[in-house]
Amino acid sequence: MNEKMNPEECEKKSLNFIEQFVQNDLKEGKNNGRIQTRFPPEPNGYLHIGHAKAICLDFGIAKTYGGQCNLRFDDTNPVKEDVEYVDSIKEDINWLGFQWNHLYYASDYFDKLYEFAIDLIKRGLAYVDDQSAEEIAQQKGTPTTSGTESPFRNRSVEENLDLFQRMQAGEFEEGSRVLRAKIDMANSNMHFRDPLMYRILKMSHHRTGNKWNVYPLYDFAHGQSDYFEGVTHSLCTLEFEVHRPLYDYFIDLLKGEDNYRPRQIEFNRLNITYMVMSKRKMLQLVKQGYVAGWDDPRMPTICGLRRRGYTPESIRNFIDCIGYTKFDGIIDIGLLEHSIREQLNKIDPRVSAVLKPVRLIVDNYPDGDVEWNETEINPEDKSIGTRSVPFTKELFVDKDDFMEEAPADYYRLSPGREVRLKNAYIVRCTGCEKDTDGQITCIHCDYLPETKFGQTNAKHKVKGTINYVSTSHCVTAEVRLYDRLLSVANAADEKDRDFIDMLNPNSLTVLKDVKIEPIVQDAKPLDSFQFMRVGYFNVDPDSTKDHLIFNRTVSLKDAFSNKLQGKK
Ligand code: ATP
Ligand code: MG
């Protein structure tokens, strides 16, 4: 299932540092040789390609070492979460080729977490703070100066128990009180300065309804959820490295006498040039109508990439290629494009498509004749066989393949010059017709019958080949050309600019009158083709029988298309 990239471009690393860590634990017999991971998305948006990196790792480690990987929805914040997101996340993980062993929700543990909080209050390790979020933030201190203790820090256990239970009973307003861990306001790790455990939220939750008026925060929910489930390796991105001591602190207070404990290991987040990699920003693009939805083919979402024509293999290969490190960086979008191009080149049927059509009349070709030329579907895979391509007197070619006055090294159509029509004949251009605005309306040619493609005696050579479709057989389609969503490579470099200002205004170009050879007539959504000399395209799900729509997945390699077009 894995088609690896070129060795030069992607040296398969021996073992990544996480695999080494896991192997070491196995060697030392930790957790009785059990390996368990989890993928823990918050259902507050659709998955993006950054999540695919975490998914490949979480599921990959479990598979490699005979363990299990569970899907856990980290649904502790009902304000932003939605069932729509839960469903899409499941679909996308499956589409990427992975299947979880169990499906869990952090909300499954709300009772246990609440009990644990009560236990910590009883042990004098947690207290209710009546201050506002702003006051608490002001007392945090800085990494080099201590914080200030809350005036409510030394409440009695009884008072804390009473207040916390009344918070849950709904007696207090949102924002009026929080439950905090009583740790150390002078700790050099800011996360130890009495972190928040619970806040009041009077929101209905997608699974627990109105049962709860208090909801746990990430740091109090995540590690404990790992522990309840039996996770051995809790893999997450680097920004959580500074949370790890707190993760361990709560686990120490929770865990029993046995030797089991989950370990958090961090790896670098995926960032890609010209892409937005944050659910919050993606939501803004969707809500404000900058894109057509979460699955707009310009989006970095898994569903957007799927609609655009990316395959699960190409995404997995890309992730495999970039690897896992301890340093944040940014990956060139060209590498992602390369991974899909490599795969589609091997599997896509070739078709002729004319994006900007203009009529070409072969004046010396008999009226009404049709030749059906057998042509390879994919020269990279001859076993697929051939297709029949019609050749007639009246054709469409691309406006960009004609110049009335062309430089000497232009090897396409121009009066007096010769060019090969792909898999058919060499034609000699004799002139063109124009409308009153000077626009070319028709090109005239004569064909050279003895130059039919595949004839052994064809000595006549030309430097350029262009494609065409027959006007009486072709299909008309809409084609959507996509360009980068952002106009800057690394949005993180431009801290002062709103990312909306960095959107590429030309990220979508719609062509309404594209002419394609008839073989695509019965194509189904997501079917993919190489439009020869142009790029890889797939059928958009918006298509109907009478209105085919294609998305450009990726263009052909520039160097390659330049070569075919006869440019230097
Ligand atoms: P975002 O900032 O886009 O909302 P998130 O980190 O809040 O992402 P979660 O749903 O909390 O998204 O993430 C689920 C898992 O995916 C986490 O383990 C997280 O570390 C990982 N993840 C999220 N974004 C990336 C990324 N760009 N690269 C690698 N892993 C990621
Ligand atoms: Mg998050």
Tell me about this structure:
- The protein is of the alpha/beta class and 568 residues long.
- It folds into 3 domains: 14-267, Rossmann fold, CATH 3.40.50.620; 279-349 and 476-564, Beta Barrel (Ribosomal Protein L25, Chain P), CATH 2.40.240.10; 356-467, Ribosomal Protein L25, Chain P, CATH 2.40.240.10.
- It is 25% helix and 22% strand.
- It has 13 helices and 25 strands.
- The strands form 6 sheets. A 7-stranded mixed sheet has the order 10-23-24-25-21-22-11.
- A hairpin with a 4-residue loop joins β16 and β17.
- α2 packs across α11 (312-322), α7 (218-229) packs across α8 and α11 (312-322) packs across α12.
- The longest helix has 16 residues, at 49-64.
- It is elongated, with a radius of gyration of 31 Å.
What would you call the structural class?
alpha/beta
Number of helices: 13
Look at the structure and give the CATH class of the largest domain. Alpha Beta
Question: What summary fits the major beta sheet?
Answer: 7 strands, mixed
- State the end-to-end CA separation: 38 Å
The CATH architecture of the largest domain can be named as 3-Layer(aba) Sandwich
How do the strands of the widest beta sheet line up side by side? 10-23-24-25-21-22-11
Total count of domains: 3
